[in-house]
Structure prediction request, 642 residues.
Amino acid sequence: MADVSLHGIAKSYGSAEILRDINLSIDDGEFVVFVGPSGCGKSTLLRTIAGLENVSAGELRIGGKRVNEMPPAERKIAMVFQSYALYPHMSVYKNMAFGLKFAKTDKSEVDRRVRRAADILKLSALLDRKPRELSGGQRQRVAIGRAIVREPSVFLFDEPLSNLDAALRVNTRLEIAKLHRELGATMIYVTHDQVEAMTLASKIVVMNHGRIEQVGAPLDLYRNPRNLFVAGFIGSPRMNFIKGQVRSVAGHSATIGFAGAEAVLEVAPGRVKAGDEVTVGIRPEHMAQDGPQTIPLEGRIDAIERLGEASYVYMKLAGGEDVIVRSPGDADAAPGSGYIAHVPSRSVHIFDAQGQSMQASTRMP
Amino acid sequence: MRPLARPGRIAVHIALILYTILAVGPIALILINAFKTRRAIFSDPLGFPDARTFTTIGFDQVFAKSDFGLYFVNSLTVTVISLGLIILIGAMAAWALTEYRFRGNTIIALYMAIGIMVPIRLGSVSILRMMVDLNLVNTLTALILVYVAQGLPLAILILGEFIQQIPKDLRDAARCDGVSEYRIFGSIILPLITPAIATVAVFTMVPIWNDLWFPLILAPGDGKQTVTLGVQQFIGQYVTDWNAVLASLTLAIAPILVLYLFFSRYLVRGLTAGAVK
Prediction:
């Protein structure tokens, strides 16, 4: 068991900067998810922690020990790859035992660990099969099994579910969560799927362009995104963004005009002045809530997607912006007709011209 | 239209059949005529041996007049040792050149590629001088050294291509498992490139076995001749013992055929590798 800490980690290939000044501390037993669009450096960061890539600057510590110069095998980590990376010419058993063989582990101990891992992952009946005779989900479990038998302090997962079909993905996701509870080991998990991030993580690290945008608990990121990028990345369908302008400011509240409406909203003091251009962010699921203190937004419906439990209304607001509204499944609406979205004012996010949130970070939706 | 009857398909098959006849023809001629009397060889070269024309006099001549067993062992020694060295050194070099980034990597790779384009025979004179200086003339070692040099460039190219196709994750996974670089090469890379090794083996082995040039200039001495050189003694300036020539050629084909059949099982997989995931 071990904590992981990164101080000023940077990585560049020639003149291309892949990671810039990454500072992060991961507690023992935490489940941390790196999430971000492809090319944001999240996989490189994971490979850096694994020791498969050298860092250009900064210090990496695992269990309090500096590991910058250590080869992967000595870092007490185990990695699960997106492509599974099973040795194709070895049986499931040998795949799991392969690494232990060279760690001079006692033969009966190897056998015990492999059988225990196979038991946990329900692979016991498949131990003599070759990887090509397994389904995608089974291969993934073997890859996880290979990590378990090493009894690492830190598990590293590199997009482990992205090659699985949707149903299997949900199952395996649950299994990984269960595994984390049972083993209690530190886990670091890379994905571009924000649903995986929200469901698995005790802490999410949102990355973009080689930088950490925000770190926090899943719900914290959902409720208080620090900037436009995080706001747009976390949540599905993504948050609607509407151009707005500050009309007047009075202490903690500002009057902001957007989409033909005007609303008094709470802001962090001193951040805005009248006349500022701002971006107003509203999640689709907060746009069809009747009740007190709602802001009505008028528009026309372009299209409707009916999913059963909800209907996604694609509407064009009076100001010309396209937004998505998550309305009840039985919502009475038709393309071409008018529609009024009701937005509770406490669910409105405001970002300044630089894309930074203008609100104090202790709000509820 | 039935797919079998498509004109394009027919043309392809005709071309393939013609090529097969062209390729197999000479070998068939050698085999057929090796068992015929000299008179029958010339009067009816395409005819099969029958009761009247059948003879094994050629084989008797070969075994009586020459030390064929020795030639055979020489050829086999040179071919097998060269092949082994080419595959071992070639695979290791290919692994190093594709996997590790180091100063001079590209230069060395390029140098090897040039080796494919420049025929080694151009250097015959210098090679002979070098072998004389090294006291290696009339030894099998001289031949092995030359053949290893001749075979390495192509081996490195082909094996390098195959190694590159092995997913990088596999090597990374092994590194996370704490497997040493030598072990990764031996336990993961080598088993996965066996089809490529078979391909290289076939392409390298045949020219070595068939070579006449270097045995002639580097090891023509008694006791060191290879099969191809041994056959030459039956071809005279005025009289050629065709029975013996054809018989020794028949004997020379046999081992390479066996080796080919052994490797071809993998060869077919090698050529279609990547076609099916």
Notes: DSSP finds 13 helices and no strands in chain B. Chain B has two domains: 1-55, 60-272. The two ends of chain B are 31 Å apart (CA to CA). Residues 273-277 of chain B have pLDDT under 50 and may be disordered.
